[in-house]
Amino acid sequence: MISGVRFAPVMLLFAALSGSVLAQQEGPVTTRVLVRAEAKKNSAAPTLRTSDIKVDVAGRDLPVLSVAPALASPGLSGSRNSRPLEIAVLLDDGLRTNFDTNLGEVTDFVRSAASPSTSVGVGYMRNGSVYFSHGFSSDPDVVAKSVRIPLASGGISASPYFCLQDLVKHWPTNTGASRVVLMITNGIDYYNGSVSPLNQDSPYVDGAIRDAQRAAVPVYSIYFGGRGVNGFYSSASGQNYLGRLAQETGGDTYNQGQITPPSIAPFFRQFQQALAQTYEVSFQDSGRNLQRLKVSTAVPGVKLQAQTEVQAGSPASARE
User: How many independent structural domains does the chain possess?
Assistant: First the structure.
C-alpha cells in the first residue's frame, strides 16, 4: 500500500509525458513533395508561386507553405533559390551486354547532371539491392567513374522493385535534399510469375510504389530490354509496371514501344526537361498513414503531376 502511494505521482508524470509526446506526434508536420508542371505543347512552363497551387489531402484543402524550383533554370545548374537535389541513376545489372554501346550516353548525362546543388549517384540493381561504387557526388568526374558495363548475368535482377524498395528505405545519404530516381531496366517482375496480361497485379510492384510514396521520391524510368527478353508479353508487362510506378509516384517513363532503343540520349533530355519543370511544394499535415493526394493549379494551360498518395511525417518528407 505504501509503495503504491509512493509511485503514484511518478506514474501520473509518466502518463502526462506520454500524452504530451503523443500529442506532438499527432500534430501537423511539414511535408514536402515534388510536383512537375506540364504546359501545353511547345509552351514554356510558367514560374509557379505559392498562391498558384492547391493541395488536397484526403478531401482536405491544406495551405501551401512554400514552392521552390527543384532546379534553378531549364538546365541542371543550381541557384540559391533552389533546394539541394539528389538524383539516383539506377542501372539494372541484368541488362544485356549490348548496353555497352549506350554507356557513353549514360556518362555524358550524369556528368551534365552533377552541379554544386545537384548530387548524382550511379547505382547498380542486383539481387534485391542497389550498389553504389562512389556514392553521391556533385563532382562530374567522380560521378562519371561510377559508370560501368552491367554484369548481364541471368537472374541477377529478378525484380527491380525489390531494389527500389531497398533504396528508398535505406537512402545512403541524410542531407535533407529532395530525391529523384531514374531507373534503366526492362521493368519485368519475375517474382510475380507469368507475364500474361491476366497476371499483372504484382504485390511487389505495389509495395515499391507505397514505399516510394512514403519517402516522397518520384520514380522515372527508361525501358531497355533485358537479357533474353524478346517476347511481346514480357515487354508489355515490364512497361506496364514501369508506367504504374511512374504515374503513382509522380514520375514518368520513357520507351520506344516494344523496341529496345538504339539510343537513350533523347530520354535523358526528356528527363532533364522534366526536372526543369519540377517544384518542391511544402504543406502541413498530420496524417500518419498514406492518404490520397491531389495537387492542382488554376494557371491556364498547366497541369500538375505528383504522387497520388502521401504520408505526413515520413523520414524523407518531414525535412526541415
Answer: 1
